[in-house]
Each structure stands twice: as C-alpha cells, then as structure tokens.
Amino acid sequence: MDDTARCPCLSGETYGACCGRYHHGAGTAAPTAEALMRSRYAAFAVGDAAYLLATWSPSSRPGTLDLDDDVRWQRLDILRTEAGGPFDDTGVVEFVAHYRAPTGRGRLHEVSRFERTGGRWYYLDGTTN
Q1: Which of 2, 45, 60, 97 is buried deepest, with most CB atoms within 10 A?
Q2: Is the dihedral of CA 84, 119, 115, 41 positive or negative?
C-alpha cells in the first residue's frame, strides 16, 4: 500500500503516518492496545500476515496464518476500550470490522484481549459475537 494513501484503519491519517509505520518495522511498536488493534486490522486489509503473526502473543499464536485474498476489509468501528494504555499490562478492545467477500458483505464483531510484554503490545485472543 502507498504510504500516502488513507490508512485502512480510518484514523484519518495516511498509511505511512499511521499503521504503515508499525508494519514497516524499524522498531516502532504500537503504544496502546487500540493502536495495535487498528494496525492489525490494517494488516488484514493490506495482506500482511507476517505482521499479524509477529504481533500475536506467543502463548496463543498459530503456527501459520493464511489470509483470504477474496476478502476486502472496508471499515473498522472501535466500540469500546478497557485499559490498554501506555502504563497498563492488559487491555480490551471491542470492534466491528466490515468486509466484502464473493458471498456478499459481512461483519466481524469481536472483543479482543491484549497483553503487554517486554514493553510491546500483543494480541492474545478474542471472542466473536
């Protein structure tokens, strides 16, 4: 994705100034659970499975991750957050992610749990509604 394009997480920033800076590495880590959630959504949108695996907690990370190229992620709505700030070790983000697939439109409503280990946030797991 072009760094000057609008970020898929819909923060209002460009991809390069928002989630792209986390995806491209260079030691930049998301400072909050919500920022990590947004960057993970954007990684789904741009097809960055390596970033998704790298930001998944080692305690729950799958061995591989195959993304469906036919799914187009279109919008992210953050519904609520609990903790997950720069001084917390755990956090919760509830969101709805809207997508389009060959079978039609859909949405994923999830309550995700995050943990901070070694100063970095990781996705732990989620419950879908």
Answers
A1: 45
A2: positive
φ, ψ of residue 76 in degrees (nearest 5): -120, 125
Contacts of 125 (CB under 8 A, 6+ apart): 57, 60, 112, 113
DSSP letters spanning 95-128: EEEEEEETTEEEEEEEEEEEEEETTEEEEEEEEE
pTM: 0.96
Pick the CATH number of 20-128 from 3.40.50.720, 3.40.50.10240, 3.90.1150.10, 3.10.450.50: 3.10.450.50
